[in-house]
Amino acid sequence: MILAHLAFRSVLRQRRRSLLTVAVLATGFLALALAGGFAQQTFQGLAEGAIRGGLGHVQILNPAALSGDEAQSLEHGLPEGEALAERLRRDPAVAEALPRIAFMGLLTEGARSVAFLGTGVDPEREARHMASLDQVADGAQAPGGAGSRWLSADPDAREVVLGTGLAASLKASVGSLLTLMATTRDGALNAVDVEVVGLQDLGLKELNDRSLAVSLATAAQLVEAGPARSQISVVLKRPEAAAAEAPRLAALAGKEAAALPWFERASFYRQVKLLYLAIFGFMGLVLALVVLLATANTLLMSVMERVRELGTLRALGLRPGQLLALLQWEGALLGLAGSAAGLALTLLLRAGLNALHLQLPPPPGTSHGYELNIHFVPMVYLVSFLGLQLVVQLSALAPGLKAARLRITDALRHV
Amino acid sequence: MLELRNITRTYELGGERAGVFGVSLAVAAGTVAALAGPSGSGKTTLLQVAGLLDVPDEGEVLLEGRLISNLPERERCALRLERLGFVFQSFNLVPVLDALENVMLPLQLAGRPEARERAEHLLARVGLADRRHHRPGQLSGGQQQRVAIARALANDPKVVLADEPTAALDHAHGEPLLDLMARLARETGAAFLIASHDPMVLDRADEVHRLRDGRLEAAP
Q: Which of A43, A151, A248, B28 has its CA 20 to 30 A from that of B78?
C-alpha cells in the first residue's frame, strides 16, 4: 500500500495538471455514457417498433417461407395455423398468439389499380398487443385520413385500413369503396369489395406506399385460406425470454414450423444497430486516443519532473518493477477520479437533458421524430469505466517504463 | 564490514577517462571512515559502486565478507533496502511525504510492521520528534539532513554511505550533524563511509582515505 500512498501524494502534488487530466477523463466518461444511453434509447425504440409493428416476440412460421417467395398465397404457410395459435395461447409463457395471413395483389378503385402487400389480422387481439391503434391515430392526420378507425371485430365486416401512401396513390380516403384482388391458395383469381375505415402510418414510407390491413376473415375469404395462416406472432409474458423460449415454442409447434426470436426477423433493427455501434465504436476510439494522450502526457511530465526523486527511491531499494507499479497506481487514481467525476456529471446532465423534453428528428428510415430520453444503462457505465481505466493503465506504461529504466547514478545527478 | 577490492570504474569525461582506478579499502563496523579528495577525484563514483548504485568495471565489493558486486539487480535492490543506507548532499527526501513518512518509507518497503514506531524512535534520536509531521520544504537544511540520516538508519543497515552530507550546510549545522553520525556509528555498529572534502568531516573520522585523480593516495 506504500506505493498507492506515494502515488496518491504524487497525483496531488501537481493539482492543476491532475485536475485537467481528470477533466479530460470525466469528459470521456460523460461522452461514452451519454452516447450509450442515447443508443440504448434508440435500440429500444427500434426493437419496440419491430415487435409492436407485427413481429411479436417470437415468430412461428413455415421454414420454407424463409428461403423463397410464394407463387401463390399461403404456399409456404402453416396449414393448421389457427389451431396452432390456439395451442400456443395455452402455453404458460405465452401472453397471446396472433395468426396472420400475408398476401399480395391489386387494389382497385374504378379504373385505377395499385399493387399492395396485405396482412390479415385478428382485429381485436392485434389492437391489444400491437401498435395498430397508434398507427391509425397517426394515419388520421394524413390527407383523407379524417375519421380513421381500426378494423372492427365483426367477422362479416369487409373493411380495410390503408397505408397513407397507398391511399394517396389511389386518391382514396376514409369511406372509399375499393376492390381487393389476389390469387387464392389454388392460384385462382379472387376479389373482395372492402370499405376503407382508416389510414395507418407505419413510420416507413416504403411500407406506407404498399401496405394494407384487413381482418383475418376478409383475408381468409380472399385467398380461400381455410385454417391455414402465413405465420403466428407470439407475444410473450417475459419479452426478454424471446431467444430462450423460441426453441421450446418450435418444439410445441411441430416439425413443420420454425420459431424465430424477433431480432432474427428484424433486419432493419439489426442494420441500424450495426450502424450505430460502428458510429459509437469510432467515437469511443477517438475518445480513447484523446484520453491516452492526455494521461500519458501528464504522467510523462510527472516522471520528467521527478527524475532525482525516482532515482532516490531506486537507491533506497525500490525495484524497477515497483516504479512501474507506482506509475500504474498514479494512472489508476487519475482514472478513478475521472470516472467518478464523469459519473456525477453524466447523471446531472442526463437529468437536465431529459427534463428539457427535446424533440429529435426521425431516425434513419422512419418518418417519426421522437423525444430525447437518455437511458440509464449501468452496463454502459461499467464498460465506460473499465474502458477508460484500461486506456489509463496503458497510457501509464510508457512513463512507467521510462522511470523503471532510469540509471540510478544519472537520476541522482539530475537537476 | 565493507571491503572494496581493486575497484575500477571509469567513464568518458571531456574526451578523457575519469573515475576510479584500482581502489581498495575497508571500513570496520561502528567506525566512521572519510573519503577525501578534491572535486572530480572519484569520491562519488566510488561511493556509488560501494552502495551498489553502479557496477564496477573491475574489482569486488564485499559486505560482511560476502561478494555483493556481482549480484543480479533484484538482490542488489534488496541489499540496498536492508543492508545499506544512503545520505545525499541534497538530502533527497521525498517532497510529498512528511519527515515521519520519509523515514517510514524504507521500513514499509521492507514490509516491517513496526514502521511507524521505529520511524518515530529514529526521529527522536536525531532530535526531530517535534518536526515529524513537517514536510521537507518546511524544514531547514540541517533538519532535512537529520531526517535523511534517520531514513538511512531505518532498516538497521550495516553500512551508511554519505556523499558530501555537510556540503549544503553551514558550519553551525554541519558540526552537530557530524557528531550525530559519529555517535550513531558507535551506537548502531554501522560502518559510515563519508565522501567529503570538508575538514570537519576529516577531523571527526576514525580513518581517512584520500583520493586523487581516481587513485588512493598512500597514507602519510
A: B28
